[in-house]
Specification:
Layout lengths: L2 H18 L11 H33 L6 H20 L19 H28 L7 H28 L4 H10 L3 H15 L4 H25 L4 H22 L1
Helix pairs in contact: 1-4, 1-5, 1-6, 1-7, 2-3, 2-5, 2-8, 2-9, 3-8, 4-5, 4-7, 4-8, 5-6, 5-9
Length: 260
Amino acid sequence: MNSTIALGLMIPFIGTTLGSAMVFLMRNKMSNKLQKVLLGFASGVMIAASVWSLLLPAIDMAAAQGKIEWVPPAIGFLLGVFFLLILDKIIPHLHAYSDKPEGIHSHLQKRTMLILAVTLHNIPEGMAVGVVFAGVLSHNPLISLSGAYVLAIGIAIQNFPEGAIISMPLKSEGISKKRAFTYGTLSGIVEPIAAFLTLLLTQVISGILPYFLAFAAGAMIYVVVEELVPESQIGDHSDIATISVAIGFVVMMVLDVALG
């Protein structure tokens, strides 16, 4: 794996780290309005990335392989949804908008389960980056290096607010800025790991790339529907969150169409 691919796999993690660093600029508690804006924007980016960077290439790739063009994307998408559903039921975690832990019962601290909640939905983002760079390495004509970088940068953009959403509330709970930054950063370390493992798997097993593209899309959409959108719509400022979804969607769509 050359340095160009390695850098691409690390870009989303860099976005999380930079977002977590916003805690050092924080003086007071993060406003509810800002949190809704960040959640909405991240949702829009993930939806657009799932369509333009993952599902549409999966459909075109299946057709190019002589398969029924909608079958691999449909199967992969549903498998991705159920994969995240299973992880959601197994991994103990706590959403920021809820006081009720999910997953297997544990005695973990609240802050640990908050971090696990973000870590859980960073897995499909890492897989998405890994699978598109696998397409680059396999010299698939439907996936370009620039397109792979657009996806990685798009996910990094939406990881920026996610990193802030983890580190800044932790600071509000009384822990030091340095520790809050560390926790926020650690929540994103799963992304390059998932990206690398997905890249290796798709390199070993030929012909499954369209399935994996759709798999990553399904997993990402699950996160948006299950976590990000509900969290952004609770309480006040739901309209701002909805507008932010639209802005995030358009930003990612433009990046993919113009640069991909």
